[in-house]
Amino acid sequence: QVQLVETGGGLAQPGGSLRLSCAASGMMFSIYDMDWYRQGPGKERELAASISSRSLTRYTDSVRGRFIVSRDNTRKTVRLQMNSLKPEDTAVYYCHTVVAKTHYWGQGTQVTVSS
Fold it and tell me: Which residue, of 51, 69, 81, 85, has the fewest CB within 10 Å?
């Protein structure tokens, strides 16, 4: 059974940094693309960043240049380094992958950016 567990959320001040981690189990991690989605208050869930099995990265425009997604296949972990945080980055952040056409989500981790 695929499981995704996020850690690392919390409270940050505007301009600050946070790093999220997602530990995967029950899957051959290295061959799958991994995503970070987020859902802000009153907003739809959106794809924030993704990293392919070949470590090719993509970002939504609002986070490009501030967020960095990376993966460690040995530890079966995907990370999201979030810098220069803004209040509009406040959201629940979810780790996501698709295995055998089935979508898997982590439980989410809250990120709040506020002074």
Answer: 81
Whole-angstrom Cα distance, residue 89 to residue 15? 11
Contacts 24+ apart (CB under 8 A), 38-42: 38/89, 38/91, 38/92, 38/93, 38/94, 38/111, 39/91, 39/92, 39/94, 39/108, 40/88, 40/90, 40/91, 41/90, 41/91
Distance CA 79, CA 94 (A): 11
Token digits of residue 24: 């995967």
Spatial distance between the Cα atoms of 57 and 47, rounded to a whole number of angstroms = 12
- DSSP character for 84? S
pLDDT single digits (tens) 6-60: 999 999 999 999 999 999 999 999 999 999 999 999 999 999 999 999 999 999 9
